[in-house]
Amino acid sequence: MSSRSVDVAILGGGAAGLAAAREARRRGASATLINRGPLGGDCTFTGCVPSKSVIEAARDGASFAEAFDRARRVVASVAATENAAVLRAEGVEVIDDEGELVGPAELRVGERRVRAKGVVLAMGSRPAVPPVPGLADADPLTSETLWSLESAPSSLAVIGAGPMGCELAQALATLGVSVTLIELGPRVLGGEEPAASSVVHDALTKAGVDVRVGTGLTAVTPATGGARPAGVTADGAVEDAPPGGTGHRLELSDGASITAERILVAAGRRANTDRGGLADAGVALTGRGTIETGDDLSTSLKNTWAAGDVTGLLDLTHAADHMGRLAATNILRPVVKARFKGEQMPRVTFTSPEVASVGLSEAEAAGRWGAKARVAELPLTAHDRALAADATEGYLKLIAGPKWPTGTVGGGRLVGATVVAERAGEMIAELALALRLGTYIGRLALTVHPYPTWSYAIPKTAAQFFVDIEGHAARPARG
User: What per-residue confidence (pLDDT) applies to 240?
Assistant: First the structure.
């Protein structure tokens, strides 16, 4: 069995793996990337790239076929920037094969052994399909299979109202599909502030989505008579459906039932930790089946790090990219290790309006600092750009906590923010930077922003920590 040694070996070619390989090369180290199939991972082929392409096409008034065709073109364009030929031209050795961890910083690939100063485990994740009776037999769509549709289903039931479920429910409804969104939790976007959930719930309803929260899926059976629009209920009884086609009857925990031609499962993801020989190599897992890591992304196995979805820290492409670079840095850095700080990672849900947030929620800040945590909010009805765009559904919230050693002087420091607006995803970057730097709230208030931009709302909101602004002033955070 042949063997070779490299500085950094990476198992997995998604966002985290690509970032780790490129960071290693940027630092002048050798890198071997092991991945079966095309590079790019879920984000490129089945996640961010196709979904955002369809969302934009829907907003542009495209048809279903035009939107999905755009998604395929954009996927091909993005994939061309990160394929094996591109990586090899950058000096990365790419092995198109399955790899298996056999010990500390050692991998087996077919008949070869790859030994490294450090290994980065970046095998990603896959859609989780809940064990609901009959669901698997209904051939449900997931983020991996949705994009293969050639024509629009007449009706669609979306299971799960997290970011993916909300984004696709709204976009597909805009494209003319009759959509029912089913969420077991009490509200859509359960990971965001309740007020943000309320705005998105209303936006989904306005788009024609039948939103069912606090409702679980209990069983799926074949519908008699074919498919009809999802969301039609009759207190547990299914009304007659038009003849022709195939459909599914979905039994819900509230006693109602609906029928839909297709089902899309958007109920979370499962880390690919059942691959790569992790158990035999001795890599410790959490109770959720993700890789247990320290804050430097090191695992229980010597000279072995993990990055991206397999860590279970944040299932976000930009977080995976950051983790990949951090893991490679720590392999090559002899003493002081870089730390992953998830609270500094912004997140965006690309509904209309968008929801973007970073740092602590208001309740978390109140629990940590009590009355020393303060909040300022600006409804978009008081924001000139939103008025000009006739898009006043939403708000901006800034959360401040004490800054050592000056406490609340200067307004304290920014510890959290939520933006619900048409350009929230662009606005959150400035706030993420301010949070990372521990910026005084006063500096945000004093930074001149061009008028009338969407980001002009930031200093207008920050100023509330010092004076009353058009009837709005900062208040203590509420738990």
Answer: 40
Residue pLDDT, tens place only, 198-236: 999 999 999 999 999 999 999 999 987 544 444 444 343
- Do residues 181 and 165 lie in contact, with contact meaning Cβ atoms separated by under 8 Å? yes
> Which DSSP symbol is given to 261?
S
Percent of the chain predicted with pLDDT > 90: 92
- Which two three-digit tokens encode residue 441? 């709230």
* 377: region left, alpha or beta (phi > 0 left; psi from -120 to 50 alpha): beta
CA gap 269, 285 in Å, rounded: 16
In this structure, what token pair is assigned to residue 295?
Answer: 């804050």
Task: Report how far residue 122's alpha carbon sits from residue 120's, in angstroms, rounded to the nearest whole number.
Answer: 6
Mean pLDDT of 64-78: 96
Listed in sequence order, the residues at least 6 apart from 54 whose beta carbon sits closer than 8 Å to its beta carbon are: 67, 68, 70, 71, 168, 171, 172, 175
Structure token digits, residue 252: 């819900």
CA distance 264 to 196: 24
pTM of the model: 0.92
Contact 419, 355 (CB under 8 A): yes
Rounded mean pLDDT, 303-320: 96
Q: Looking at residue 335, what is its pLDDT?
A: 82
- DSSP labels for 147-181? GG-SS--SEEEEE--SHHHHHHHHHHHHTT-EEEE
**Residues 319, 159 contacting (CB under 8 angstroms):** no
pLDDT in tens, 120-175: 999 999 999 999 999 999 999 999 999 999 999 999 999 999 999 999 999 999 99
Q: What contacts 138, CB < 8 A, 6 or more positions away?
A: 220, 248, 263
Distances (CA, A) of 173 to 153, 349, 354, 434: 11, 17, 16, 37
What confidence tier does 238 reach under pLDDT thresholds 50, 70, 90? Answer: very low
89-94: long-range contacts, CB 8 A cutoff, minimum separation 24: 90/22, 90/25, 91/25, 91/30, 91/31, 92/21, 92/22, 92/24, 92/25, 92/31, 92/32, 92/33, 93/6, 93/30, 93/31, 93/32, 93/33, 94/13, 94/32, 94/33, 94/35, 94/39
Helix (H, G, I), strand (E, B) or coil at 228: coil
Structure tokens belonging to residue 2: 């042949």
